[in-house]
Specification:
mainly alpha; about 325 residues; single chain
């Protein structure tokens, strides 16, 4: 090999010329590459988005984080007219009272029962509705159906409860329909059957929220690459096969994330529908934790006891989210964090 073609080797002891990143006025200070931006430069470029989100951050701090200070009431024998530093501290007394009451466990059972039913049937109904809506080829009818399906979400539970009670009454349309087709011989008083109350509440919740909950699934389906469907058609896949092998796998991460968030709210199902649809006959099946806190806490001026119930709900919600998120991370699906 010629000497002119020999590779150039670095001689030991010879100083190496500084690179671009090593040069500068002070010599040791690294320089940013042309495509790299400092943190403050990124903040400056996103200042419009930051200012837009600032009111919501302030709202979150004021109405979500500042009230957490009120949790101290659960460890006090709280009296409204007594200053904070003069309140009597009782430790975990109210939590012990909570776990020693049988009514609490009945409320917890009802809450979990209706929450699980609502989670299962609500999620399935929203996904199925979004799939059917996505398969429609008449755009005008699709938009009309989608718009109409949102309306029950904005209807008050007072109105929904009246509709449900009227529909399920002895002389209501449901009994008349079942008797006309020969399923039953005598009308059923649905609202006086304790074993049917969970189903009535779940059906009302699914009817009210299916259209609204399907928005995110429908938006996720709109982002699927159309070339996947074209390739499936070339291979002879039917509409059902395209739905099963393309649409559902594509929106699976969205389903998992929403499922995790809904599991976190499993115990926070509210009390409006149970209070409005319930009566003295089904009161034991209608009692949920929120209604229990209202009746046996605030309603009896036991503010510390009601706060202890709220802390219990928050802790359970966080634990459920962590468990569901860990499970999703283990199986490699979409997760919240």
């Amino acid at each position: 090999m010629s000497d002119n073609l020999a590779p150039v080797s670095q001689q030991v002891g010879r100083p190496v010329a500084p690179t671009i990143g090593q040069t500068g006025k002070k010599g040791n200070k690294p320089q940013y590459s042309p495509g790299e931006k400092s943190f403050w430069k990124k903040v400056k470029n996103q200042k419009a988005l930051i200012f837009m989100s600032l009111p919501f951050v302030i709202w979150l701090i004021i109405f979500r984080y500042v009230p957490v200070f009120g949790w101290t009431m659960a460890f006090q024998d709280y009296k409204p007219q007594t200053p904070f530093f003069e309140q009597e501290w009782v430790g975990f007394k109210h939590f012990r009272d909570l776990f020693n009451e049988q009514t609490f466990y009945r409320a917890l059972e009802n809450t979990l029962g209706m929450g699980i039913l609502g989670l299962i049937f609500g999620t399935l109904a929203a996904i199925l509705f979004a799939l059917l809506l996505n398969e429609m080829r008449f755009n005008k009818f699709k938009k009309f159906t989608q718009t109409v399906s949102y309306l029950p979400h904005f209807v008050s539970w007072v109105i929904v409860a009246n509709i449900v009670i009227t529909m399920l009454s002895i002389s209501g349309p449901v009994n008349n329909l079942l008797m006309s087709i020969g399923i039953i011989d005598n009308p059923i008083n649905f609202m006086a059957r304790p074993n049917m109350f969970w189903g009535v509440v779940t059906a009302a919740e699914v009817w009210k929220s299916t259209g609204w909950n399907a928005i995110i699934y429908f938006a996720a389906m709109a982002g699927i690459d159309p070339q996947l469907y074209e390739a499936a058609k070339v291979d002879g896949a039917s509409r059902w096969r395209q739905m099963w092998h393309i649409t559902l796998p594509s929106i699976r991460p969205v389903i998992i994330v929403l499922l995790i968030l809904n599991i976190g709210n499993l115990i926070n199902i509210g009390f409006e529908k149970q209070m409005l649809l319930g009566n003295n006959i089904v009161s034991e099946r209608a009692l949920v934790i929120d209604l229990y806190a209202l009746n046996y806490g605030i309603g009896m001026f036991r503010y510390s006891f009601g706060t202890a119930i709220g802390i219990f709900k928050s802790v359970i919600s966080v634990v459920l989210i962590l468990i569901a998120n860990t499970f999703a991370r283990k199986i490699g699906e979409g997760r919240v964090f």
